Amino acid sequence: MEDLAFKLLDLGESQIDLLAIGAALAGFLAALVFDRSKRDLLRSEYFFAGATLLFLANLTQFVWLATIPAMARGILWVVIVIGLGCLVVFGYFLGSISRARSRNAWGHPGYAFLGIIPIANLVLLFRRPAQKVSSSSRSSQIGTNVVLGIVLLVLSTGADRVLERLMTRAMDFDPIEASAALTARILARSTETPQKIDDFLTLEKVEVAGKTLSYQYSVDTDLDSLPDSFIAETRQDECPNPAYAPILQDGGAVEYIYHRLDGGLIGTVRFDAAGCATD
C-alpha cells in the first residue's frame, strides 16, 4: 500500500487532478445508480446544499497537510485513502442533490447528470420548478438559503486559498532539517533497485526500519567477513555524506549489509552519529 501511495505522489500535477476528478465522478455515478430517494429540491435549496458540500469538501482536503508526517511514519496511504475517499463521498452527495433538483425541475431525475458538468450545471440550478411550490415554509426560506449559500461559497474560496498556501509551506521543507524516518524513506524511494554497481557488487534493495536505513548488497565473492580496512574506509567515506546528515543528527543510523550470492552474510557496516564522531 505504501509503495502504491508513493507512486501516486510521483504522478504529475495534471494526473493527480484527473485522479481527484475521477474519485468525485465515481461517487456521483454511484449516486445516480443507487440513490432511490424521492425528495426534490428547490433552486435555493439546491444552491445551499451545493455550497455546503463544496465547503465541507474543501475542509476535508486539509488532510493533505499530514502528507509529510505520514511519509515519515509509513502511513502515507492512509492520507491518500482519506483524501480520495472524501472526494468520492462529495461526488455521491452531489449526485444525490442533483437528482433531487432534476426531479423538482423536470419531474424526474433524468437530468441529474448536469450537476457534474461545468456551466451546464447552471441549467440545473436556474430551471424553474415543474410544479408550483405548495409549501409556504419552503418558499419563505429562499432568501435565507441564498444568503447562506453565498457565505459558504466565500468561505470555501478562502479555505481553498489557505490550504494552497499551507501545502506550499509544508512541501517546501529543508532536507537537512527533516526527521531521520522521513529522510530514510525518501532516500529509499529514490534509489533504484536492483542496481549493478560493478562486476562483483549489486545493490539488491533498500529497506527502512524506524530511523535505520539499510542498503542490502550481494557480492560475488568467497569472503566470510569484511576486512577491517574496508569497514574503516567505508565509514570514513560515508559519514560526511550530507544526504545522511538528517538521519544521523536525529539519532538514526545507516547500514550497508553485504551477502554472498548464496545468501550467506559477509558483514555489516553500520554508522551513526556516535560512531562517526569517533572516526
What does this structure look like?
The protein is α+β, with helices and mostly antiparallel strands. Helix content is 57%, strand content 13%. Helix 4 (67-73) packs across helix 5 (76-106) and helix 4 packs across helix 9 (180-190). It is elongated and about 90 Å long. The model has no long low-confidence stretch (mean pLDDT 86).
Average pLDDT over all residues: 86
Helix/strand-derived class?
A: alpha+beta
Sheet bearing the most strands, described? 5 strands, mixed
**Per DSSP, what share of the residues sits in E-state strands of 2 or more residues?**
5-15%
Query: What is the element string, with H for helices and E for strands?
Result: HHHHHHHHHEEEHHEEH
Task: Spell out the blueprint of helices and strands.
Layout: H1 2-9, H2 13-34, H3 43-60, H4 67-73, H5 76-106, H6 121-126, H7 136-140, H8 142-171, H9 180-190, E1 195-196, E2 201-209, E3 212-219, H10 228-238, H11 245-249, E4 253-260, E5 265-272, H12 273-278
Parallel strand pairs: 3-4
Antiparallel strand pairs: 1-2, 2-3, 4-5
Helix pairs in contact: 2-5, 3-5, 3-8, 4-5, 4-9
What is this entry, summarized?
The protein is α+β, with helices and mostly antiparallel strands.
Search tags:
279 residues, alpha+beta, five-stranded mixed sheet, 12 helices, elongated
